[in-house]
Amino acid sequence: MTSIAQVRHARILAAAVAAFLAWDIPASAAPQVTRLTPPSRVFASGEAGPPITSRFLPGQRFDLQATIVPDAGQAITGAFFQVDGANVPAAVTLSPATASGIPAGATLATVRSYSNLVPGLHRFSVNGSQSDGSMVSAAGNFEVVVIEPGRLKAKNLIVMIGDGMGIAHRTAARIMLKGVAQGKAKGRLAMDEFPYTGLVATHSLNSIVTDSSPGAACYTTGNKSNNNQHGVFPDDTTANFDNPRVELVGEYLARLHGRALGIVTTSDVFDATPAAFASHTQSRAAGTGIVDQYFDDRERTGLAVLLGGGRKWFLPAGTPGSARGNSTDYVLPAELSTGWGVAPGALDPGRDLIGDFAAAGYTYVADATSMQAAPPATTKLLGLFALSNMNVALDKINGRRASSTVVDDYGFPDQPMLDEMTEKALQVLDEDPEGFVLMVEGASIDKQAHNMDSERWILDTIEFDRAIEVARRYALTRPETLVIVTADHECAGVNIIGGSRVTNADLLTRAASGGGTSALRSGVVGTYEAAGFPHYSIAEDGYPLTTDVDFRMLIGYGANADRYEDWVTDLQPLRDSQQPFNNVPPLSAYPGGPLARDIAGNYLVTGQIADTVAAHTASDIPLSAMGRGASLFTGVMDNTDVFFRAMQAVLGGVQSPRRPASR
Hints:
The protein is of the alpha/beta class. Helix content is 27%, strand content 22%. The strands form seven sheets. It has a ten-stranded mixed sheet, sandwiched between helices. A five-stranded mixed sheet has the order 2-9-8-4-5.
């Protein structure tokens, strides 16, 4: 049923669209405006109706920018912006556009840190002048969303992101962990217990298929980004850190409400998803600058907890394993640093970032043992448990069981599991009386799906679900908490194609036989009723005793690269190029890609893509929610809708803690 609030919002938007359509939008002239930020359909195509490209919270800060190209032999001498016909009372900075392919003399006109408190649709325009007195104008629009007043607000927001996790990833984890009998699941995942579920469309600003940067940034800004970018809109410069910014959820809530921020991941902490919660860049690869922003802007983001891999960015250059360098560092233009009130940055490869955090009052922990020993009253926590990405759940568990040497080969045998990290993060953040935002990422669901390493991403999904259970238990005792479980995109086109028709012993024989398609496809892959009900025994630690069982579950990929397949669990993961010691023993002996493993069986699966690993897809992803405001998360949503629905729960609240009908 449509609520009164929804009707009111629809009327406001309809009236604003009608007014916008009546505006006289000047035709392009020379000089020309070739880009106008924030992005809008009005500027791009002249269409003024919904969907509105760029949306903001009341008071959320963002930059206004235009690229203005002068006539030949002329120069841009001035510019000003207007919103709803009124001049924006802020200094406009003119700077050269430096991106390749941009005409000579092209100039960026920028206003930093603009905000608007008035809900509804707004027209904005830029007016530029060139040296001969000629003028040009271009217009766009943006929306400030309506936050409806409610009775009960969410004080704490926990966002659980299973990177790359689609519906089939969840299903495979349930089958392996809980089993199926007579057509019904024998148990439920923690995420299955959440009372509200919807679907999320994941497109980025410049593609139907997103990468992780805009896939996560939609949850931190409420806006679309180009692939490889987060916390910013695209621009026409080559610099990685000068793009037009959008205020992040952590920055907004720290500035206005004093909330703390926690980031927990199994990846390198510079990676796209964690970075989208506390940094701004057009290059997700700029690791030195990203982690430096974590520290330099900690007071503005409220960063209180940072746990994951990525120690290589924190070690001074020259230290074994360090990856710090000027090419990935950041220095901001003065107008950006001043306009946003943030650190200017510096090229400082010799920086001891761990030391900086420690001097600022953060407790630093380097392994699972020291993390668990951190005092209960800790209020700031930094944990770096590997040089780059942490090892995956299968290898960490087998290390704890003393049945594998993978974690020893990487040099970090005492890494925590994601649920342990989540528990510690909540313990620290619970000390903050104003509330918090916590992002927890199961990062290698994606990384191992890229590698088409089925058993590793399934166990990482199980590890992620165990972290979800920690958040679920926390929310049950803190009713002012909203927990959202989702992904940033789907990875690899995963699906469960059936079950093996042979025992594990037979499968091992076939995998060593060189029999190819006849041995490993025709003789093994069971579909429909031949798939049966695979069964995995679960150990006391919560993970399968082994993934090499008789009549096992079989996984296929819809966005796969070429690979050899034998259906047997690989003893070693593929080499991780982000690891500093990837090219030296013992890691250099690990298989280099999907065509360098499982060769003995001679069963080549030809991929649909020419990449060396599987790719992301444009498929919708599931979202599940529980706690304060969870009832807002149903139906089919754009990924940016998730941000605004969460902020409705946090800023406006809901009328009552609605519960779904009983099952």
